[in-house]
Amino acid sequence: xxxxxxxxxxxxxxxxxxxxxxxxxxxxxxxxxxxxxxxxxxxxxxxxxxxxxxxxxxxxxxxxxxxxxxxxxxxxxxxxxxxxxxxxxxxxxxxxxxxxxxxxxxxxxxxxxxxxxxxxxxxxxxxxxxxxxxxxxxxxxxxxxxxxxxxxxxxxxxxxxxxxxxxxxxxxxxxxxxxxxxxxxxxxxxxxxxxxxxxxxxxxxxxxxxxxxxxxxxxxxxxxxxxxxxxxxxxxxxxxxxxxxxxxxxxxxxxxxxxxxxxxxxxxxxxxxxxxxxxxxxxxxxxxxxxxxxxxxxxxxxxxxxxxxxxxxxxxxxxxxxxxxxxxxxxxxxxxxxxxxxxxxxxxxxxxxxxxxxxxxxxxxxxxxxxxxxxxxxxxxxxxxxxxxxxxxxxxxxxxxxxxxxxxxxxxxxxxxxxxxxxxxxxxxxxxxxxxxxxxxxxxxxxxxxxxxxxxxxxxxxxxxxxxxxxxxxxxxxxxxxxxxxxxxxxxxxxxxxxxxxxxxxxxxxxxxxxxxxxxxxxxxx
Amino acid sequence: xxxxxxxxxxxxxxxxxxxxxxxxxxxxxxxxxxxxxxxxxxxxxxxxxxxxxxxxxxxxxxxxxxxxxxxxxxxxxxxxxxxxxxxxxxxxxxxx
Lengths: 526, 96
Hints:
The complex is a heterodimer of chains A (526) and B (96).
Chain A: H1 8-16, H2 22-40, E1 43-45, H3 48-63, E2 75-79, H4 106-113, E3 117-122, H5 156-163, E4 169-174, H6 180-186, E5 189-192, E6 212-217, H7 220-230, H8 248-251, E7 260-264, H9 274-289, E8 293-297, H10 305-320, H11 335-352, H12 355-360, H13 364-376, H14 379-391, H15 398-418, E9 424-428, H16 444-449, H17 455-460, E10 463-471, E11 477-484, H18 489-502
Parallel strand pairs in A: 2-3, 2-4, 7-8, 7-9
Antiparallel strand pairs in A: 1-3, 4-6, 5-6, 5-10, 9-11, 10-11
Helix pairs in contact in A: 2-3, 5-6, 7-18, 10-14, 10-15, 11-13
Chain B: H1 5-14, H2 21-38, H3 73-77
């Protein structure tokens, strides 16, 4: 088996047995990036020399018989919204194009402590806002299965690079489906942990009550490996849960006896693509043949999930993104031009005798903020900031924001009731397979409605996972969505492994086109 | 209820954004569309429901009251577009 076909778990065993070296593994993945990332464009930066140096250091330490971390020598790709010292952390935004974080996110620090080899930072929708990776300020990522389609998003780069064998493991973040939907679109396994399971320290904030960092991998077993390293209480994140960390790696191979699956009635309604529905129903029959029982359940408030989410997430985003002011860090407008613009406006208002206009004219500092933010944020980020600022503004806060928080409690209540009777909830990850690049860029609401099945888990703070469960006739992967009660990630992983022992959807790989040697490689951020 | 261009202009100012006329027109249409969609929440009776701002089963998480090193000033200032040895620099705030 080639290094690119092996699972992370297999690579780790071979590394530990000194059958292969970390440099060989890292070089194999870097070569794959060189061959294919000009087409897929999953990476924003690939510091190859540093990755090879890390790998060589691991090999040297292994050679000396030193004790190594649990991911020693394994390449891991990381979404570019996790602060990483020495590297760019751009968030896919012009705002942070030149930002250098002075500290490592806890997830990054844990990967380094585990002796993982950081192989690159992956592309995303700007500030993780979007479901297609087309909102990246730098370039869109393409789906490795069909370059005319999106990989999903916002962790599109993290999903695409694993699907294209450019990294055995990657890290994503999920605020409304941003790990699970791209995992589904790209045919990989992606897990959103329970809110509080993984530290958010150093994750650039989008919506702080919804954001979670999680693993993407080829198999549930590999996802368990990565989750084991990144999960656990962190005093640096006050919302991190002080609860025990189970042994995911040790238990993932144990099948779940008497598994009770709940099938959500509301998830099989209008809008669900026929091929997706058939694949999901077939997957559920597969679980039944493995001994699971299936009951139909109802999440009666699920029809309100998108509306609730698109009030709460933008509200939190408008507050979080207020920090980008052109002063402390990030992009700043040209000050000379800004002052000239203000002077010209003042002159014009004076000539017109417009006193009200003069009174309302921005101060230079205010105009600095407004120009810096308007020049550096993309249209989706502006839209969400505006939506949130509106929902939180005087006179509207109770009708929008507080109302949505109340519905959020009802949505959580639906899950609590459902999990009295079932162990896991099962359904489609997304209503369709990967859609085409450009299909929805002009229709934000249509794009938002794609998040139908995934946003509820974030609102309720529970765990969710997408695993491959089929292919469309057109050759696109289909994702199966499993949801578990808070802190039952072990159950998701064991169910995923059970399914992957009985099926081979997770072993399918796309046929990649090789870019011409003259093709430019991915953009290297400064 | 429908959103006016003036409403959107006011929100842009609150959000410290400056939109072009074209952006303003597009934004007004798109925000209006999303807000219309969101208004379905109005139909739901939530009079006896407490708001849920987050799902973490935690309250008042305090750090131990001990000194620990913080970010050195130079590191904190390193990403600023304009600075001197000690401070961030901004355009004059007090009158001209």
